[in-house]
Specification:
This protein is α/β, with parallel strands linked by helices. It has 2 domains: 132 residues, Rossmann fold (3-Layer(aba) Sandwich); 186 residues, NAD(P)-binding Rossmann-like Domain (Rossmann fold, 3-Layer(aba) Sandwich). The chain is 36% helix and 14% strand. Bound molecules: (2R)-2,3-dihydroxypropanoic acid.
Length: 335
C-alpha cells in the first residue's frame, strides 16, 4: 500500500519521526521553531496529512492550498485554531491530544495561584536586586502575600484539567471548591465536594477564579467588566485556557483599580502580548509564555499521541482523538 504524504510543520523528537516514517512518507520543517504560514502554504500541495503544533490557523485559505489534505493533527488539546465549518465542508478530519497533559497543566495552574498569591516573581526579583537587607524585606508588611490553603477555588470549565486542579487544590491544599460548567460533574462533586454553581456565584464566592474553559463561540469574551466587578477585592484571577475567553482591557482595569488583587496568566489575546502591554507592567500580575503543557515529558507524549492520531485518521481508525465536531467525517455520517 502506498504510504500517504505528510508534512510536519515543527520538528518532532526522533522517536516520533521514526514512528511517522514507518507509516508515511514524511517531510519535516527543518528550521527553528515552526514553519511560517507562507512556508506551510507552499508545502501542502501534495500533503494528505499535516502534523502541527497548536496555534496556526487551519482555515479556508490553507485548505484551498491543500487539495489532497485528509487529516490535520494538532499537538494540543485546544483546537480553536481549526475552522471547523471549513474542515467539515472539505472533509478534513482534525485531531487533538487530550488527557496526556492534564496533570502538567494542573501543576502549572497551582504554580500560578501560589506565585500570584505569595508574590514569588516579585520577591525573587527583590532579592536578586540586592534589596533584601537585615531588618528590612521579608518581615515587612509590604512583602506579605495571601494564603492559598483552605481558601475557596472557583473553576470555570470543569473538564479533565479542571478535575486535576480540583484534586490538587482540595486534597492537597484543603481548599473549598465551586465550579461552573455546561454540565454537572457528579464525580467531581463526590470526590472533591465540588459545588455546582452559577457563573456569578463562582465569581463572587471565590478567592481564586481559574479559567479553564475551551475557547468556543460561546466562551469568547465570557469574562467581562461586570464579571470582575462580582469578584472579591482580595481575589486572584488565573487564566490557563485561552486569552480570548476574557476581555483583556477589563482585566487590566480590574487589576489597576483594585477591583481584584492579582492575576496569574499563561495566555493572552493575541500571543505574544505586545511589549508595551499594560499587563506586562503590573506588579500584581504573574505572566508566563503559554507553557501550560510545556514539560519535556508531556510535550513528548503529546507529539507521540498526535503522530498516532494522524496515522490512525489517515488509515480510517475511528478510535483516534478526532475532535467531536468533526467525528461525523470519520463515521461517514452527515453532519
Ligand atoms: C493546548 O494543548 O491546547 C495548550 O494550550 C498548548 O497549546
Amino acid at each position: 500500500m502506498k504510504k500517504p504524504n505528510i508534512y510536519i510543520s515543527k520538528p518532532v523528537p526522533p522517536e516520533v519521526l521514526s514512528y511517522l516514517e514507518e507509516h508515511a512518507s514524511c517531510r519535516m520543517w527543518d528550521g527553528t521553531g515552526t514553519a511560517s504560514r507562507e512556508r506551510l502554504l507552499s508545502e501542502l500541495e501534495s500533503a494528505e496529512g499535516l502534523l502541527m503544533p497548536g496555534g496556526g490557523l487551519i482555515d479556508r485559505e490553507l485548505l484551498d492550498r491543500a487539495p489532497n489534505l485528509r487529516a490535520v493533527s494538532s499537538i494540543s488539546v485546544g483546537y480553536n485554531h481549526f475552522d471547523l465549518d471549513a474542515m467539515s465542508e472539505r472533509g478534513v478530519i482534525g485531531t487533538h491530544t487530550p488527557s496526556v497533559l492534564d496533570d502538567t497543566v494542573a501543576d502549572l495552574v497551582l504554580a500560578l495561584m501560589l506565585s500570584a498569591a505569595r508574590r514569588i516573581p516579585e520577591l525573587d526579583a527583590f532579592v536578586k536586586r540586592g534589596e533584601w537587607q537585615r531588618g528590612k524585606g521579608l518581615a515587612e508588611d509590604a512583602n506579605f502575600g495571601s494564603d492559598v490553603h483552605h481558601r475557596t477555588l472557583g473553576v470555570i470549565g470543569m473538564g479533565r484539567i479542571g478535575e486535576a486542579i480540583a484534586q490538587r487544590a482540595v486534597l492537597g491544599f484543603g481548599m473549598k471548591l465551586h465550579y461552573y460548567n455546561r454540565s454537572r460533574k457528579p464525580e467531581a462533586e463526590e470526590r472533591y465536594g465540588a459545588v455546582y454553581s452559577s457563573l456569578e456565584e463562582v465569581l463572587s464566592v471565590s478567592d481564586f477564579v481559574v479559567m479553564m474553559t475551551p475557547l468556543t463561540p460561546e466562551t469568547n469574551r465570557m469574562i467581562r467588566k461586570e464579571h470582575f466587578a462580582l469578584m472579591k477585592p482580595s481575589a486572584f484571577f488565573i487564566n490557563a485556557s485561552r486569552g480570548q475567553t476574557v476581555d483583556e482591557e477589563a482585566l487590566v482595569e480590574a487589576l489597576q483599580t483594585g477591583v481584584i488583587r492579582g492575576a496569574g496568566l499563561d495566555v493572552y489575546d493575541p500571543e505574544p502580548p505586545r511589549g508595551d502591554h499594560p499587563l506586562l507592567k503590573l506588579p500584581n500580575v504573574v505572566t508566563l509564555p503559554h507553557i501550560g503543557s510545556a514539560t519535556h515529558a508531556t510535550r513528548f507524549d503529546m507529539a507521540m499521541l498526535a503522530a498516532r492520531n494522524l496515522i490512525g485518521a489517515l488509515q480510517g481508525d475511528q478510535q483516534v482523538h478526532i475532535v467531536p465536531e468533526l467525528r461525523h467525517l470519520a463515521e461517514g455520517k452527515p453532519e
